[in-house]
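Chain A, query sequence.
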Amino acid sequence: MSGLDLLKHIAALTPDVKTLVISRHDETLYAERAIRAGSRGYVMKTEAAETLVSTIRRIESGAIYVSPEINERLLQGIATGQHSFNHSPLEVLSDRELEVFEMTGRGLGTREIAERLNLSIKTIESYRARIKNKLNLANAAELMQHAVQWVESESIGDGVK
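Chain A, predicted structure.
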């Protein structure tokens, strides 16, 4: 189960539980999907402990909170009449496709992804085919190249490689 699936599951079973996502992804795409899935907040792993405590207090009092950088991009998207994550071509991917795309970029093969997600190899191949189609990628090599570049760009600054 992906993190987004878990958020949806928690929200459906226990709507009174307030969740906070602490992520390494400094991308509006993830923040918006997390909030839509039921999270009450989205902050970066690099936030100071004081910020995390303050965020938990805000969420407990009923507020929704996202990191200032992400909030600024969300508001910019609203002000310009665009979806908040129009800057990412990955917006067209479903949550599961995005998960497969990321795992591909981290160097996992079809079999490894299938095992980690508890899905069949054929299902992962289907997801990859849909990703290639949605992103207009010609072949598996292009998919791998784009996925690796995206993962590397996401990893800059947080020490994850």
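The chain has two domains: 3-79, 89-155. The longest strand covers residues 20-23.
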